[in-house]
Design a protein that fits this description.
The complex is a heterodimer of chains A (about 325) and B (about 170).
Chain A lengths: L16 H33 L5 H36 L1 H36 L8 E7 L10 E4 L12 E4 L3 E8 L4 E5 L6 E6 L5 E6 L5 E5 L13 E4 L11 E7 L6 E4 L7 E6 L32 H13 L2
Antiparallel strand pairs in A: 1-12, 2-5, 3-4, 3-12, 4-5, 6-7, 6-9, 7-8, 8-11, 9-10, 10-11
Chain B lengths: L9 H21 L13 H12 L6 H15 L5 H19 L5 H25 L6 H13 L1 H18 L1
Classes of the chains: A alpha+beta (about 325), B mainly alpha (about 170).
Chain lengths: ~325, ~170
């Protein structure tokens, strides 16, 4: 390589036009990569500030995916139903005995419940208690959840046309399914209870202690609660129902069953199987935030004369001596 | 033979769009409702990005990886921009690695791909924490391991399509 004289050093070395073009292209390519990565990072950070970003796009994707999912999941549903039918036929005799025993027990329970309902209605009338009602918005089919690791979601076959809005609670036959996240025109996506971002205020049905059912992205949830309320008294088999705190989920909907108390926090199995929700109902938020009536403006007060300032309060002098006296002492 | 640059005809366009189409189809496939309690399907879209970036770097430019990543985010309902960041990073990493490799062997390719895939899943876990939606690490790592094991599958799929690509060209 020949050294150039000092006065022309700033000038680029003479290269063939092909080499120059290649290096220019490489430079432009590197700049483009940097710009693309920067845009992606900015989008990601914007979604931190505004998690709603992309909601419309995701809703539209739900619209597109719902028919596809319905077709693909049809064989699974069919074989599941066939398997169930065969199993039922196989064990018909013993099942009848079990069911008859269950029915007798349930009749007793229902009688007791009816009496209690009447009592509660009477007490409500006495107290003039206002109980918000659960309002059904729409009901539809839910597909099984997709197999991506980071999000546990499902698609339901009702959307904005049916009155579904984001945040609405979704309830399956066996218990709570989740809440609506993105809404398309004829389909919506719901966040399942097992998603890592899912938090449901629950209480233990037997004791009434409250806590949170927290999703972990796996098949089980965690029951997080104030340990001071007595973790040793939570048993395997305790049923958890929604507490109604937060005003979104209606109270008393089954959320799950405690299956493991050796871990901390205890593990819950969801009451409604997230991979086989079947028909679900979308309800309006149970207790939405009220429209506050603005208070009447306060009447203007007339100025009052300020009393003349008195002399400095005498209490300061003893205070300073009290502080300084221990210093002087040995 | 005419060496002058000619306008690509419809066949040429189809050829150019094959890699992007396969990745989009794989993104769609991962949203299919499978009765799995965990999200344990291999991330085929990520694998195909990795393979195409190595086999046909010109048909998988970095901006295409970015757009395909955004599509993946929309389909999987993840945070918008997560895979929009991870897919271009994959392409960059593959390009950097391919420039350095002197010999190609299935074993080393698989090993390097596995390391890259696990690193990307750990990065995804960290990015979730960064944007304030912390995730438990286990499901993401499990998917990373499953994805790493599915590498030969993606390679076979890409090889099948690549053969047709070359035949058509």
């Amino acid at each position: 390589m020949s050294r150039l004289p000092d006065e022309v050093r700033w000038r680029p070395a003479k290269r063939s036009s092909f080499a120059r073009r290649d290096s220019n292209l490489a430079l432009i390519g590197a700049m483009l990569s940097g710009v693309v990565l920067a845009i992606a990072l900015i989008l990601l950070l914007v979604s931190k500030v505004n998690p709603e970003q992309g909601r419309l796009l995701r809703g539209a994707a739900a619209d597109v995916l719902q028919p596809v999912h319905a077709i693909v999941s049809a064989p699974f549903r069919f074989f599941g139903a066939v398997g169930g039918a065969v199993a039922n036929y196989w064990r018909a005799g013993s099942r009848v005995g079990e069911l008859e025993a269950d029915l007798a027990e349930a009749r007793k329970q229902a009688e007791r419940a009816r009496q209690m309902e009447a009592d509660i209605a009477r007490l409500d009338a006495l107290l003039k208690a206002a109980r918000p009602e659960r309002r059904l918005v729409a009901s539809g089919m839910a597909s099984a959840s997709p197999a991506s690791a980071a999000t546990r979601t499902a698609i339901i076959s009702v959307g904005a046309h049916h009155g579904v809005r984001p945040r609405m609670p979704v309830i399956a036959a066996d218990g709570l399914a989740g809440r609506v996240s993105d809404v398309g025109l004829g389909a919506a996506r719901i966040i399942l209870l097992t998603d890592a971002s899912s938090r449901v205020p629950v209480k233990v049905e037997r004791t009434g202690w409250t806590g949170l059912a927290v999703g972990r992205g796996t098949s089980r949830m965690e029951f997080q609660f104030d340990t001071a309320s007595g973790s040793d008294l939570i048993r395997v088999g305790d049923r958890l129902v929604t507490s109604g705190d937060g005003g979104l989920f209606p109270p008393g909907v089954p959320v799950g069953v405690v299956v493991d108390v050796s871990t901390n926090p205890p593990r819950i199995r969801p009451a409604a199987n997230p991979t086989g929700l079947g028909m679900v109902r979308v309800e309006a938020p149970w207790l939405p935030p009220p429209d506050f009536i603005p208070a009447a403006p306060a009447p203007a007060e007339a100025d009052r004369p300020v009393p003349p300032a008195s002399t400095a309060p005498a209490t300061t002098a003893p205070a300073t001596t009290a502080v300084s006296s221990p210093v002087g002492r040995p | 033979m005419n060496y002058a640059p000619s306008r690509p005809d419809s066949r040429e366009w189809r050829r150019r769009l094959i890699p992007a189409t396969t990745v989009a189809a794989a993104s769609l496939a991962i949203t299919l409702p499978l009765p799995l309690a965990w999200g344990l399907m291999p991330n085929l879209a990520l694998l195909l990005i990795l393979v195409w970036a190595s086999v046909q770097p010109r048909l998988m430019p970095i901006w295409a990886a970015f757009l395909l990543g955004l599509l993946h985010d929309i389909f999987t309902a993840g945070p918008f921009g997560l895979f929009g960041l991870l897919f271009p990073l994959t392409v960059l990493a593959v390009r950097a690695g391919d420039g350095r490799l002197r010999t190609r062997m299935m074993r080393t390719d698989w090993l390097l791909a596995a390391i890259l895939i696990l690193a990307l899943h750990v990065l995804a876990w960290q990015l979730f924490a960064l944007i304030g939606q912390p995730q438990p690490p286990l499901p993401l790592l499990a998917q990373g391991v499953v994805t790493a094991f599915a590498f030969p599958l993606a390679l076979a799929l890409a090889a099948l399509l690549h053969r047709r690509l070359v035949e058509e060209a």
